[in-house]
Amino acid sequence: MEPAIKFPHRSPEKMKAQHEQAVTDIKAAIISKLTLGVGKDAAQATERDWFLATALAARDRVIHRWLAEERATRAEGRKRVYYLSLEFLIGRLISDVISNLGLTDVFRDALGDLGVDFNRLQAAEPDAALGNGGLGRLAACFMESMATLGIPGSGYGIRYDHGLFRQVIKDGWQHEYPENWLSFRNPWEFARPEVIYDIHFGGRVENTTTPRGTQRAVWHPEERVEAVAFDTPIVGWQDRHVNPLRLWSARAPDPLRLDAFNRGDHVGAASAQARAEAISKVLYPSDETPAGRELRLRQEYFFVSASLQDLVQRHLRDFGDLHSLPLNAAIQLNDTHPSIAVAELMRILIDLHGMEWSEAWQIVVGTLSYTNHTLLPEALESWPVPLFERVLPRHLQIIYRINSEHLKVAEEKFPDDSDFLASVSLIDEHHGRRLRMGHLAFIGSHRINGVSGLHTDLMRKTVFSDLHALYPDRIVNKTNGVTFRRWLNQSNPGLSKLVREACGDVYSDWTRIKKLDEYANDSAFLEKLAAEKRANKVALAKVIRERVGIVVDPSAMFDIQIKRIHEYKRQLLNLMETVALYNAIRSNPNRNWAPRVKIFAGKAAASYKTAKLIIKLANDIARTVNDDPAVRGLLKVVFLPNYNVSLAECIIPAADLSEQISTAGMEASGTGNMKLALNGALTVGTYDGANVEMCDNVGDDNIFIFGLHAHEVEECRAIGHNPGAIIAKTPMLAEVIESIEQGVFSPDDKSRYGELMAGIRNSDYYMISNDFASYAEAQRKIDQVWHTPDVWRRMCVHNIAGMGWFSSDRTIAEYAEDIWSVPV
């Protein structure tokens, strides 16, 4: 539903007439697109055809605003923001575009008149799965907020042919298949075949002397790949502004070697094409092999080089002089993936535009800023020097020079401290000589931001502590946010209507949602809130039955953990507590249990064996629990396959309890925690990421926090904690581990989880044993609150009201003021 906009000078009759005219116009536009754009007659059109026609009709209403904004930005000389991200998890766009245009009711009525169900039509759009999880979804939210706030900007990424894999569960195991989101055409994008940039790899570097007597490096690459642009318009709320998301597709300059083809080597004739196109074929190719690691590096350089060449060309066209780049452009690096931008922008300025090193470096640092999303060492990318030298020899030279200048500064400030110099160096000499890309991004940026208060504090104290000592003014915090337009207005229209009636247009002004606190004791409002939650749970129960064949009771508590499968996110802790609950129900079936449906969803990286084993355990536990008549339906366990944005939009509105239970100090922020709380779920979580700030905003009494603090986790690891002793003192945990070890949930292979449980007994790096008892106690408190529905609903209201600060509009406004220096 659209926000209620009042026009005092318009009578209801006139407004009805205008709506009817708009419906008539949209019907005509859809039929025209169906005929001329899709080539189908209405009588033969499929749901996919109707989707294409509707999307094209909606896109037409975006283009004029988009072009007008582009003209105005150029004419006024406004500063632009360029957001570089390897992931953009944008999901389906049909409802996003139409809602932000303010035309949902018009399109719904127009399609209804044509005999097309709008909800079914939305389901015909494939998810653009161009991201893995929170990082990519955050980028999508940020693009929408930039457009809503009227900030001229562009997103840059890769147009993956297949995106993240499609997850299929067979006999409880994850299997990966290509996600063919482009199979039937993407109606939102505009191909730009005239926008092509050459991307080079390999070869050698020749040092020459210019006629003026200066030294100059000339790169002679051995391979050239073309980057071709595709633009998707991103529409802001109420059509205020439109920004482009420009994605690059890779192709070979010569797609076919005719000489080889004519010799009969039909496969070899296209080998160059296959090698080039592999760059934009799949998101996150497995890095288990040397070829996979090289492809990952090629992907990152490919999109960074194309993006920087593009924005530099635009800047020269608009302003004529690259010395003004920091004044007129802000480049945000979303995590370490685009960090090669530091060396590439230096190469462009020095090698292609003849700048001196010092002036080029000032421009680079003044233009670039870097968002760090993780403290995990494996996620702070590093590349073996030999691999990097083979793929990007000129860039290695530049990085060596950057490092030399950087270490001079470090030595001046911290003389005679070799350990400090080794710590801040761009080259890690202790692990086979590797380039530290997080360090490169830090040194080459004027601002480095964390994504939650805790995460930023830990950045200063841990992974970047020495760099922070060297550059103490660079690290700032920008706590993540989510767009309410997508994650409330579109995904939960019933709740959105209640919130809007109580608070006004929270989609233009996020601060208004705080007014909802006034309704926490309004019994009529609480009943309406409960009714909307019930309807969403009924809808999710239908999806569960259709997808995995499990029947669940919408009256039970829907206990949700939906996120990428990773040991630090501790799906395993949740599963082990589920086993403990299962054992307790069997032992004491007449206790007043709170019925629960434990719902898991998420993908494990293809090469992450432990994560894939955790998925198998979840499915083994589900089979055992769901088939046990002794439980009497008090507990159900569900693993929903192929988690994506569309599935999230179905799960999140139905959630009663949100599981945010990562090991303290390891989750940078989280955004699922914000989306779930915004939709009225209560949170059980650790002192980690943005959970800490959520607690501050909703109040201690409205969230269930448990477990160790981040500093306690570090202390335990430092002194060498003893998980075996903890397990021995926790009989409930010992029983869980023994039952999993002994094959209670894997009778076909009793040793399947032996190594997994041994890891908890012996090392337990993620502190499951330490937090288990506290987590179980929190869950029993949650049971007690569930049995008092009025208290539960009041807590839900306070959670929704407390989410205003977690709007991505607030986050982007802070970036604009503190990092990008652009007006909002």
UniProtKB/TrEMBL annotation:
E.C. numbers: 2.4.1.1
Reaction equations catalysed: [(1->4)-alpha-D-glucosyl](n) + phosphate = [(1->4)-alpha-D-glucosyl](n-1) + alpha-D-glucose 1-phosphate
PROSITE patterns hit by this protein: PHOSPHORYLASE
Any GO BP annotation: glycogen catabolic process
GO molecular-function terms, A-Z: glycogen phosphorylase activity; pyridoxal phosphate binding
Subcellular location: Cytoplasm
Obligatory cofactor(s): pyridoxal 5'-phosphate
Pfam families for this protein: Phosphorylase
Main location: cytoplasm
Record InterPro entries: Glycg_phsphrylas, Glyco_trans_35, Pyridoxal_P_attach_site
Modified-residue entries (N6-(pyridoxal phosphate)lysine), positions: K675
Keywords assigned: Allosteric enzyme, Carbohydrate metabolism, Cytoplasm, Glycosyltransferase, Pyridoxal phosphate, Transferase
Cellular compartments per GO CC: cytoplasm
Domain of life: Bacteria
Function: Allosteric enzyme that catalyzes the rate-limiting step in glycogen catabolism, the phosphorolytic cleavage of glycogen to produce glucose-1-phosphate, and plays a central role in maintaining cellular and organismal glucose homeostasis. Phosphorylase is an important allosteric enzyme in carbohydrate metabolism. Enzymes from different sources differ in their regulatory mechanisms and in their natural substrates. However, all known phosphorylases share catalytic and structural properties.
Assigned protein family: Belongs to the glycogen phosphorylase family.
PANTHER family: GLYCOGEN PHOSPHORYLASE, GLYCOGEN PHOSPHORYLASE, LIVER FORM
Protein name: Alpha-1,4 glucan phosphorylase
Lineage, top ranks: Bacteria, Pseudomonadati, Pseudomonadota, Alphaproteobacteria, Hyphomicrobiales
Gene name for this UniProt entry: malP
